[in-house]
Structures are given as C-alpha cells and as structure tokens.
Amino acid sequence: MVTSSHSFNRCAPPKADLFEIADYMNPILRPKYRMSMEQRVYTQNNDDHSLELVGIPNNVVFTPSSNPSETSSHVAVAPPKVEPLTVSIPQPETVKEWYLQVKNVETQEVVTVIEILSPKNKKVGEGRNKYLKKREQVLMSLTHLIEIDLLKKSEIMPMNIDDTIKSDYRIIISRSDRRPQAELYAFNLAQEIHSIPLPLKPEDEAPLIPLQELLHSIYEKGSYDLAINYQKQPLEDLSENEQLWINNLLQQQDLI
C-alpha cells in the first residue's frame, strides 16, 4: 500500500476522494448535519476556451404556427433533389467539478464546503478564473471553506504565505468567523497527510477527517496497485531525495 500524499491525488479521481470522505463522515455528522456530493457542470467553447456554467433549462412551450386540424388548400410540390454536403460542427466540451457541502438538516443552511482542487482549477486560464469566483463567493459568506490541494504543479491559490514555508501540497481551512485568517496544513511527498477538523456551527465540536486513512481505503478498494505501472517514474520534477524515498517505499511493498 502506497502511503505518499501524492497517491491520494494521482491514483483516484476527485469524485472517489469526495465520496469516501462523505461516506466516512455522514455517520458522525448525523442527525444534525448531512454531507452531500455536489457537481458543477461547465461547457467549454472550443474556439476561445471559455467556460459557461450550465444551468437548469427553462420549460419550453411550443405554439404551433397553425391549427393542425385545418387542412391547407395548397398542394405541396416536391422540391428539386439536392444532395447535402457534409460539414463538421464544433462540439462544446463538458467539464464536471465535484465538491462536498455540509448542510444543517433542519435549516438546509450550507455550513461548510470542501473542495479538492483539479488541474483545471490551478492552471492559469478560464478554469482557474471560474473557480476563483466560486471561491470568493464562499469566502464572502458565512460558510466555512476547506480547500485540499494535492497537486504539485501550477500556481497555488491566492493566500498570504510566508516565503520560508516550502511545501508541494497544502490544505486550507477558512472558518467564516476568523477570516481573513485561515489554517494552513503544509506538507510534502514523504509526509503523512494530516487529519483535519471539519468546522461546523460554533456550538458543535469539529470532528476530524482522517485523510490519510481514507487514502488507504481508496487505494485498496480501487486496486490501484494493479492500475499503476510502478516500473515507470511515477512523478515528474522529483528531487533526488524524493525519488530515493519513493523507490525505497515501493521496494518494501514489492511493487518494483
């Protein structure tokens, strides 16, 4: 079983990560709270790569141009036969983003939102801009935000961070009553992923989310040791020490 923080991000898709968190936390949160997995759906224009949030369509009512019971007095004449040409129409790409939200069962108030960042969130461009707008909406509300960044590449999300703090991965907990201050859990490849508190209402104690334990569960249930070719270098831009650590870990578990 691979225990690196990177495996949590690389092996399982974010949807699996989020499902595992919700599955573990819901028995702890009930009966006052419920954690659910939600989805944002965007369409991406192939021409300018812009993203548009897909909403629920309005009901469309069609009105016939004439009464179908009426019989036309005109006699239809067949048009001359014309062979159509074949053309290609660009199709918009569908982009799905999954996240978790914790609601108060009685009031239906969204108490906490949990995001696991995707490459599209971090890469400079329209995807990042859309995510940052959603992030700002949460930060301006009374909802707590947990942001889990297990991606080594691309720019980190906006935050005032000390230059002496060097980490490839980070978890931010922004409590609504403590903003702009937030809690930062910074760690690197060989370090265990921290168990983090799930902030709720002030009168309720924050239960812990055991991320490292959930990593192991996802890895075992998904049989990811059979899906990953460990004979190849699993990561890019590794330092010599990181590559040595990975090799030793894989050898211990007979994966290489």
Q: What does it look like?
A:
The chain is α+β, with helices and mostly antiparallel strands and 256 residues long. The protein has one domain. It contains 6 helices and 9 strands; from the N terminus they run ααββββααβββββαα. A 7-stranded mixed beta sheet has the order 2-1-3-4-5-6-7, sandwiched between helices. A two-stranded antiparallel ribbon has the order 8-9. Strand 1 and strand 2 form a beta hairpin. The longest helix has 16 residues, at 14-29. The two termini are 12 Å apart. Residues 1-10 and 55-72 have low confidence and may be disordered.
Number of helices: 6
Query: What characterizes the major β-sheet?
Result: 7 strands, mixed
Global morphology: globular
Q: Tally of extended strands?
A: 9
Structural class: alpha+beta
Distance between the termini: 12 Å
Protein name: DUF4058 domain-containing protein
Organism: Crocosphaera watsonii WH 8501
Pfam family, one: DUF4058
